[in-house]
């Protein structure tokens, strides 16, 4: 320590023409200055080393960031492309769904028409989309499922589109078949309308059948060309089928009687009526009121003598009577 407290003199001898210069320096300065210079050199070396390492790390991180950004941009572009493709698939599926909905509506309309023709009561069933269901406040819950991957969604959309195409094709095949069925039913219904298949009266009491019988007035065997149905005077009498009235008169022994031509060579006749409500030329419908049961002409009491004539020949009316009038209303 004593040596450091001493003073040291430095002498600078310049060229011969200049004076000598002396510097007195403390021993402490001789120690501190070199030490400070050495410390600064060490710090500089450490700083340079740290800066170089940090720069390398920054460059590495920048490279990784650039790579990540590039990958993110590619991934984002891929996802955008997939979203656009899925939107296109959904647009196609929506159009196909609308087309199928229209076809279903057409088929449902045909079905309703067929039911109406054959007399089946229709039951309306409304199917609403889940998206159209109004939501109310309250608790919610249920098992959670993650959305499928875009590739799975695209595959599902493709399969659904193929199924829609197949369904539309089946509906295209079904519609003509239903149209043909409707046409056939209409023809059959028209055929039924002009075929005498219902009871001509509300009473079901048969007092005399078709064929050979003992005549109730003469007592002799005779051919009975119709079916006698008992009842009360004034009971309603109905047309057994659609047709045109070709005869409406009062004669003997028929009494008040009506003849209806149903086409295809088939006619029906109603005898011994109390009153007639139709005239020659009138078009009548199956089940329409045409007269009243009575006791006119050659008759032993109130009844309807009902005849079915095919191609000019009287036939047994019994096989033609297959249903009640009320069943058709």
From TrEMBL:
GO terms for MF: metalloendopeptidase activity
Keyword Coiled coil among UniProt keywords: yes
Pfam family, one: Peptidase_M23
Coiled coil: 76-120
Membrane-crossing residue ranges in chain numbering: 28-51
Domain M23ase beta-sheet core: 223-317
Keyword list, A-Z: Coiled coil, Membrane, Transmembrane, Transmembrane helix
UniProt-listed InterPro entries: Cell_wall_metabolism_enzyme, Dup_hybrid_motif, M23ase_b-sheet_dom
Record-given protein name: M23ase beta-sheet core domain-containing protein
Source organism per UniProt: Paenibacillus agaridevorans
């Amino acid at each position: 320590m004593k040596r450091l407290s001493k003073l040291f003199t430095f002498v600078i001898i310049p060229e011969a023409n200049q004076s000598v210069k002396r510097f007195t320096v403390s021993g402490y300065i001789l120690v501190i200055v070199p030490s400070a210079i050495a410390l600064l050199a060490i710090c500089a070396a450490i700083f340079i080393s740290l800066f170089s390492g940090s720069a390398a790390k920054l460059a590495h991180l920048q490279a990784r960031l650039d790579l990540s950004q590039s990958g993110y941009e590619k991934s984002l572009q891929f996802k955008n492309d997939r979203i656009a493709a899925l939107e296109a698939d959904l647009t196609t599926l929506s159009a196909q769904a609308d087309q199928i909905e229209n076809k279903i509506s057409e088929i449902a309309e045909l079905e309703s028409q067929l039911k109406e023709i054959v007399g089946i009561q229709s039951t309306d069933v409304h199917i609403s989309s889940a998206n159209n269901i109004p939501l109310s406040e309250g608790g919610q819950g249920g098992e959670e499922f993650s959305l499928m991957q875009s590739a799975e969604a695209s595959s599902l959309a493709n399969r659904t589109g193929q199924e829609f195409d197949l369904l539309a094709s089946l509906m295209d095949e079904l519609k003509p078949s239903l149209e043909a069925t409707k046409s056939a039913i209409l023809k059959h219904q028209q055929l039924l309308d002009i075929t005498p298949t219902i009871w001509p009266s509300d009473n079901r009491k048969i007092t005399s059948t078709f064929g050979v019988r003992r005549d109730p007035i003469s007592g002799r065997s005779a051919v009975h060309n119709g079916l006698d149905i008992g009842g009360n005077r004034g009971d309603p009498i109905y047309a057994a089928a659609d047709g045109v009235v070709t005869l409406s008169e009062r004669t003997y022994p028929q009494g008040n009687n009506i003849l209806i031509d149903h086409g295809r060579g088939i006619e029906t006749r109603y005898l011994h009526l109390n009153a007639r409500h139709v005239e020659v030329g009138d078009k009548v419908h199956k089940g329409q009121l045409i007269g009243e049961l009575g006791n006119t002409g050659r008759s032993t009491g109130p009844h309807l003598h009902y005849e079915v004539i095919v191609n000019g020949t009287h036939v047994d009316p019994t096989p033609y009577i297959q249903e009640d009038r009320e069943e058709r209303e």
